[in-house]
Predict the 3D structure of the following.
Amino acid sequence: MNIYFSCSITGGRAEEATYQAIVKELESGGHEVPTAHLSSPQVMEMEDVVDAVEIFGRDMAWIRGCDAVVAEVSSPSHGVGYEIAYALSLGKPVFCCHKNGKRVSKIITGNTTPGLTVVGYATDEEAVDAVRQFTTRLEDQSKHT
């Protein structure tokens, strides 16, 4: 599957190790992750050389072309929220995970849109396991349709 990974860039990088663990899990599961570079410690330098209009167009195209979105939402981010809303408006399955105890917007936690899953985790291993369960469920559903 083609999975769009979304995480905070300018809003904070406290969960960067979790981002890396999630991307590693997705890629090792055979998924295409066009945004894998977002988990890199050098993401700011990589994205600084790309024009904002170009990033917007590129990322919206990637969301339109993906099978699902996986978002780590522990750190507030306008971009991540926008990407989640856009993907849901297109009917894409969206998985959001956040570290237990972090304040996450009620626009995310209270959202009852079909296709949205929101899960808390205590450890990177729990986050990775929840992502694995999500992608396995999607793969199983696609086999039956």
Remarks:
- The chain has a mean pLDDT of 93.
- Residues 3-143 form a domain with the Rossmann fold fold (CATH 3.40.50.450).
- The chain has one domain: 3-143.
- The two ends are 15 Å apart (CA to CA).
